[in-house]
Amino acid sequence: MSYHFNEIEAKWQKYWAEKQTFKAANPGEEGSEKPKFYVLDMFPYPSGAGLHVGHPLGYIASDIYARYKRHKGFNVMHPQGYDSFGLPAEQYAIQTGQHPAVTTAENIKTYRRQLDEIGFSFDWSREVRTSDPNYYKWTQWIFIQLFNSWYNKDSDKAEDISSLISVFEKEGNAGVNAASDDGIEPFTAEQWNAFSSEAQQKILLQYRLTFLSETEVNWCPALGTVLANDEIVNGVSERGGHPVERKKMKQWSMRISAYAQRLLDGLNKIDWPQPLKDSQTNWIGRSEGAMVSFKVLSTGDLPLAPSEGGGTEPRYRTSDSDIYGILLDRAKEMRKNPTLAEAKLWEILKKKGLKVKFRRQHPIFNYIVDFVCIEKKLIIEVDGGIHKYQLNADAERQLLLEQKKGFKVLRFTNEEVLNDIDNVLLKINQELNSPPSEGLGEVPTKGWDIPVFTTRPDTIFGVSFMTLAPEHELVTKITTDAQKAEVEAYVKATAKRSELDRMADVKTISGAFTGAYAEHPFTKEPIPIWIGDYVLAGYGTGAVMSVPCGDQRDYDFAKHFNIAIPNIFEGVDISEEAYADKDKTVIANSDFLNGLPYKKAMKTIIYEIEKRGFGYKKINYRMRDAVFSRQRYWGEPFPVYYVNGLPQMIDPKYLPIVLPEVEKYLPTEDGKPPLGNAEVWAWCTETNQVVDNSKIDNKTVHPLELNTMPGWAGSSQYFNRYMDPHNEGEIFSQDAVNYWQDVDLYIGGSEHATGHLLYSRFWQKFMFDKGLVPKDEFAKKLINQGMILGTSAFVYVLLLKVKTNLNNSFLLEGKTSFKDNDKLTKAIKAPKSLIVSEDVFNDVKEYGKNDLVDEWVEQFENQNEGMKISYSSDRLIRPNLDISLLKGLTDEINKEALLNTLQYSDSVFLEETPYFSQREVEKMSKSKYNVVNPDAICQQYGADSLRLYEMFLGPLEQAKPWNTAGITGVHSFLKKLWKLYHTGENGSFYVTNSPLEGGVGGVEPSSESFKTLHKTIKKVEEDIENFSFNTSVSTFMIAVNELTAEKCNSRAILEPLIILISPYAPHIAEELWSKLGHNTSISTAPFPEFDGSYLVESSKTYPISFNGKMRFTMDLSLDLTKDEIEAAVMAHEKTIAQLAGRTPKKVIIVPGKIVNIVG
RNA sequence: GCUCGAGUGGUGGAAUUGGUAGACACGCUGGACUUAAAAUCCAGUGGACAGUAAUGUCCGUAUGGGUUCAAGUCCCAUCUCGAGUACCA
C-alpha cells in the first residue's frame, strides 16, 4: 500500500474538527488539572490575496511546539483569530462600494480553508475577530477604563480617576504627582470645588490616560485622511502621490509616556529577541541628563564685565570651591542626625512627593538649607534645632537667598511641624502653586529663561552659543531690531519646509542670529543666541546649549557661522571634527571640572547646577503619547458622545456601540471622517441608544464621536480575551486569567516590534495596575520568525519603436492600420517589444545595437512594406516575470504561456532557442510575481511535506529563500517513513511485537535500532526545546535511513518513533498510529522517555592529529587510561610513518575526544 | 551616522563546553529499471595536485592579524550584506 497523503490528510483533518481534538480546557473543565501552556501566533490580517508559503512558517513552528507540549502532558491553548479591521478592506470598499464586513468575511473563509489544509492544531472554538461587535465591545470597554484612569507617579501605577478627584477636593492639584499634560494651571481645593462641572471635566481630561489633544498630523486633503509617516514618500502620499500638509487636529491620545520607564524595565524580565528589545529601548529613548536654565540678558546690551563695574556680583564660585568639601561633609553628617521635626517633614516631603522633588540638607550657595525644591526655587527651613553652621546668620542668609538668588524661603518652627503638619503642608502647597516671583535676580534681565535639556552637562564650559528651534516661542521676543528682518525671513523659510524635507536635507546648515545673548550660568560670559532648524521644536525644550567641540551638529553650525569653538577636552584635537566620545573624555578648561573624567564630571556638575539653583537632574524620554484616533470607517467606533464639545463615556452596560452603516466610505465633503456620513449616529441619554442624527438637540441627544480606533486597538489585549472568548459579562473571568496567566510562547514577525508589541505591553501594564491580570508582561517568550523570501524571475525585454513612412496610415488598437478612401485596407500588427536573451540585452545596453536584432528588424521590414522599426539602449527593461510562466520548477520560460498573457501579447521572442529567466531572491510579494501558494504544494506533496519542508529550510529566526524544488527531499523521506511500516507482502502494513509485550514469536529489536531510537529522542527533544526545528527534520531522516538499513519492524521502536514525528507531520503520524492499533488520537500520547543506557559506548573512534591536523582514526576502548591510549597510538604504524623518526614534543590526550601529537 | 544581526561547497544549511569542517537535503554526474519519460533504487560529488588504483599531499568556514597542542567557534582590526533607527541635544 503506498502513501496516499491527500486521502490521509483529509481524513484526519475531518477527524480533528469533529472530535474537537485540540480544544483547550478552561478551569473546571476536564483537562484543566494538567499544567497549562499557552502558545500564540500573532493573528493575521485576512488579506484578499490569501496565504503564501511565507505566512505559515511561524504557525508551523508554534504548532509543532504546541503538539509537543501536548505529548508532554500539558493542557495546551493554541488559539487563532483575525485582526480583521484594516485599511485594505476599506480601500476596496471605497473603490467598489462593497461593505468591508462582506469582503473581510470572504477573505477569512479563504484563510480558514488554507489554514485547515495545513493541519494546524488550533482551538477554533476560541476564535476572535477584532471587527466582531462581540469582540470590540471589550476594546471599547478598555478605552473607557483608560479614560477613567490617571497615572499616579507616586504609587507608580494607574489609578481610578475618582482618587484624583478626591485629592483635588481636599487639597487642589499642587500635591499631585501625575503623568499629565504640560502646563496645567495650579488650583486649590476651594478653587476646584468652585469650578463648574465643565471646567472640572476640562481639567480632568489633562490627567486621563486617554485624552483629547491637539495633535499635529500629516493631513492629505485629496484623500481626506491623515497619513502615518511611512505612508508618505518624498512629501506626497504613497498612495496616489497627493500633497500632504501639517495640520492640527483634535484627536484621542493614549498616555503611554506614563509607562515609559516601566516599559523599559519590563524588557529585562522577558525572553524576547535582543534586536526587538533594542528597538523598543531605542523607541522609548531614555536619556539621562540635566535641565539647565540660561538667563536671557537684556537684548542688545551686553552686560559690563565685572572689571568695568558691571552688575554681576563678585565671583562667588571661588569661595564655593574652597568650602565645597566642607559643606558636603557637613550636609552628609546632618542628614544622618535630623531633628525630630526635620525627620517628620522629610518623610512627608519625600513620600507625598508634592509633584516636585525636594532635597534635604542640601548645599545652596554657601549654605546648607534644610529642604529645597530646586525646580521651584523653594527653600524650607525648620527652626528650633541647633544650627550647627551659620548659627546667627539666618537673616543675612535669607536676604541673599531671596533677594539675590531668587529663592523663596519658608520658615517653620519645630512645634508647627510636630503639631500642625497640615497647616505646614498647606503653606508649602500654596507657595508651590503661586506663580514664580519675578524676583530680584542678580542680573538685569527681562525675566526670560531658556531652559535646555542636555545629556552632557559636563561640557557646559564648552558652550559658545545657544540654538533655538525657529518655532521657539521666545524667538520673536528676544530678537533685536537689527536682526529682526533676517530672523523673520529664516523662520518663514523653515515653516515652508515640511518636517520631512528638513529631515531629508540634513547636510545643509542654516540658521540666523537673534542679536540676543544669554548668560552662561557659570562663567557669566554672554553667549549669542541663534536659531537653527537642526533643533527640533518637539524634542526636549526646543532649545539647546551648543557645545561645538563635543557635538558634530553644533560643530558644523559653528564652523559655518564662524562661531568660536572652545576646546574643553584634554589632549584632543578638534580642528577637524567634534569629539563626542564619553569614555575617554577628560575635561579641561572648565574651572572646577578640570581633569575629571566623564562620569565624575557629570556627578560634580549636576551637583553644582542643583546647588546653585539653575537646573536639576532630569531623565527625558523620546517616546511620545500615542495618537489613537483614525479618520477611517473600518475600525472600532469610540464609545463617546459630546456634550458642549466635551467627551462623555457611554455606560459600559450599553456596549457595544456598533459601527453604523454609511452610504460611502469616504470622508465627508467638509472634511469630517467617514462616520460623518452616517445618518444614525447620535446618542440618546434617555433611551441609551444610538439614534437618528436629526434628533440631536444637545440636551438629551448628542453627537457621537466620528473617529474610529487605530489598527492596534483590537490587537492590544486579544491574547487575554482568548482565555475566555465567549464571556459576555466581563472581558474575561478572573478564573480563566488566573489559570492561563500569560502567553508562554508567542511567535510572529519582527515588523511589530514597536507597534503592536509596545502598545500591548502598555495595555497589559494598565490592566495589571487595575488588578485585572496577574502578570504585567503578557508574553514570557517571543520568537520572531524570519521571512521566507521569494525567488523572482526576470525577463529581458527590448521595447521597439514602430513607425510608418506611409502617410495614409495610423495606429489603432496597437496595430498600424492603413486606410484608403475611409476604408481600412489592411492592418499590420507590429510587435511592441522583443524578448531577448541576456547576451543580446547586454549587447544592446553596451553598444546600442545587436546583429541578431538587426537581422530580425530587417526581415520584418522587408515583409511589411512601409514599416519602420527602431530600438536603442535606453529602451531596455527587465521586468519581473510571473513564476507561473516558467516550465515546472525550472528557470526555462514557457514561451507560449508568456505570449498569451495580456502584458506580452504584443511581444515576440527573438530566437527559437529556449529562454531562461534570471532568478533573484527578493521579498515574496504579489507585485513581484514570485508568490508560491501553499494550496498547490499541499495538493502535490501534502501538508506534512509542506510542514516538514518549511522547517527544514533553515533556522526559524533566519530569513531564507523558498525553492519549491527542494521539497522532494522531505517528501521522499515521508515515503520512506511510510515504507518502514509497510514491509509486509505487497507493501502491506507490518509491525512485529517484541516478546516482552506478550506477542508470541515476537522479535526483540536490535541494539542498533534502540540506539537509533534513543539518540533520536534525545536530539529531537533538545531541538524542540531550543526551537531548532530544522535540525530535527535531519535527525528524523537519519533515523529512518538507519532503521531502514537495519530492517527494523519492531513495534518497540516504530511506535515511539511515530510520536516523535507527530508534531512535525501529524497526519501521517495519526494514520500510522491508528494502524498500530490505537483508536484515539496520537495527539496526547506520552512523549517517549529518553534512556541513555542505550547509547553507552564501549569504544570511541579517536581522531589522531599531528600538529592539529587529523591524519587517521583509531578505534580504542573508552576504558583505557591516558597512558594506555598514548601507548596504543604511538605503536600504530601510521603514527610511526607520520613521525618519520622524529620524537614528539608533546602528546595531548583528551579521553573520549581526541589525540593530538605535537612535534 | 548610530544600534543590532549575519558572512561555511553550485544551493538551503549542519557542526554541545574550542577537539574528525561540510551532517541532512537539493542540484549535478554516472549506473540499474523502462521502447521512452516520470517515479524509484544504487554510487560519486569542497578545490588543486600526484598516482592505473587503493591512497597521499597541499589549500580551504568574508579579509588580515593574534591567543592555543588544537579556532568556523575565542580576541583585535577591516570589508560586505541585512534589519532597525535617525538632526533626539
UniProtKB/TrEMBL annotation:
| PROSITE patterns documented for this protein | AA_TRNA_LIGASE_I (PS00178)
Keywords assigned: Aminoacyl-tRNA synthetase, ATP-binding, Cytoplasm, Ligase, Nucleotide-binding, Protein biosynthesis
Location of this chain's protein in the cell: Cytoplasm
EC numbers listed for it are 6.1.1.4
Catalytic activity, as annotated: tRNA(Leu) + L-leucine + ATP = L-leucyl-tRNA(Leu) + AMP + diphosphate
Q: Which SUPFAM superfamilies match?
A: Anticodon-binding domain of a subclass of class I aminoacyl-tRNA synthetases, Nucleotidylyl transferase, Restriction endonuclease-like, ValRS/IleRS/LeuRS editing domain
Under the heading Pfam families, the entry gives: Anticodon_1, DUF559, tRNA-synt_1, tRNA-synt_1_2, tRNA-synt_1g
Motif 'KMSKS' region in this chain: 923-927
All copies of the DUF559 domain together span 329-432
Q: Which segments constitute the Methionyl/Leucyl tRNA synthetase domain?
A: 42-148
- What protein family is recorded? Belongs to the class-I aminoacyl-tRNA synthetase family.
Report what the protein is called: Leucine--tRNA ligase
| Lineage of origin | Bacteria, Pseudomonadati, Bacteroidota, Flavobacteriia, Flavobacteriales
The gene that this protein is the product of is: leuS
